[in-house]
Amino acid sequence: MQKIIKINNLKISNRLPLSFMAGTCVIESEKQYLDFAQKLKTLIAKTKHPFILKASFDKANRTAVDAYRGPGLAKGLEILAKAKALTKLPVLVDVHEPWQAEEAAQVADILQIPAFLCRQTDLVLACADTGKAVNVKKGQFLAPSAMEQIIKKIESRGNKNILLTERGASFGYGDLVVDMRSLEIMKQFGYPVIFDATHSVQKPGALGSCTGGNRQMAPVLAKAAVALGIAGVFFEAHPDPDHALSDGPNSLDLTLSAKMTRELCAIDQVVKKFK
Fold first, then answer.
1. Is the pTM value of this prediction over 0.90?
2. In this predicted model, what pLDDT tens digit does every residue of 28-44 receive, in sequence order?
């Protein structure tokens, strides 16, 4: 049975119309984030599909020690609260340490566990204990079937508001590959499955001091994923990707975001007719 997860007034399921989770990789400034959040809302509103705004207050897994990480927890959550009030959208935010979960849950509607940290039991349980929905990104090193044990960790705390996200698997040292079987395998657990279109086209460490990638391939993989009948697509967007402070090579501009979301909704509409 495919479960339905409620996020405020939104419903997310592998059998319901496609949802989108999008935003900049990291908050660069309050003005930029608030302005861009409104633009993304307007863009995705045209599809009439559910939209959850995402952001990060700290990118704790940057390649280089001097890479920009974000405004930090306190300032970041303050900006996210303003974005939430301004857009009236639910918000997703990633956390990297157990102590951050309770504080982030004061603002966020979904707590996201980064792929590198999906096996960290204390972090998983801390997020589960907040009662908020938990989106777990499958590690690049993890088989999709292994996500069952992470699900059990969250469920052990009485929390069944779970989402599972595919974001590619390590292929050698500097590339990722997406095994589309992973989406179908994770769907068997019943929880909503999300495809992370932009992180799946990363090339880890390819630029030496930062991660590279190919944003043009994100819509290609997303279309293949949506054709399998999934709950949602996650992607990072930026007003000027070539000058983004984090994950620029993989981020989409508004034009590419609009084209991709429009095409994905058309595919989803056809696929869900047969569900």
1. yes
2. 999 999 999 999 999 99
